Amino acid sequence: MKIYLASPFFNEDELNDVICAEKILLGRGFEVFSPRLHEVRTDKIADPVLWSRETFETDRENIDLCDCVVMLYRGAYSDSGTAWECGYAYGTGKPVIVVQLGSDSNLMVHEGCRSNITLDGLIDYDFELKPQQKYSGKML
Asked: Considering the entire predicted model, what is its pTM?
């Protein structure tokens, strides 16, 4: 199974969470595409316009190729890239499994996802059946 891991990784907490999720999913034998591990900025692609286009296309292609998206989500925190990945996945019919890391949520994320789990929930979540688990916390 191919999983696209959508998550910001701009600070140490986010980075630690995405590395943890990568380890769990890879340890379960899944094929995982994590944008963190596929930086396209090189000497050859140093120009911001080229880097931007290459990053967008790489992410879009890998969402198209995956079986589902796992989104690490911190609640009402604003990360437009991760929100776009979630919306694009939903719009193309890919199931989105949200790993809730914050204390609140945005209704657009949780109404568009298949399941809502915790980071520890990745350890034994059934990715074949993808059981629905709805969010029940504070909604913004």
From this structure: 0.93
Whether 114 and 79 have beta carbons less than 8 Å apart is answered as no
* Identity of residue 105: S
At position 99, the amino acid (one-letter code) is V
Using alpha carbons, select from 66, 68, 63 the residue that is nearest to residue 97: 68
Assigned token pair, 57? 């296309």
Q: For the residues of 17-72, what is the DSSP string, one character each?
A: HHHHHHHHHHHTT-EEE-GGG-----STT-SHHHHHHHHHHHHHHHHHH-SEEEEE
Helices 48-65 + 80-91 axis angle, to 10 = 40
Per-residue pLDDT of 25-67, as tens digits, reads 999 999 999 999 987 666 666 677 888 888 899 999 999 999 9
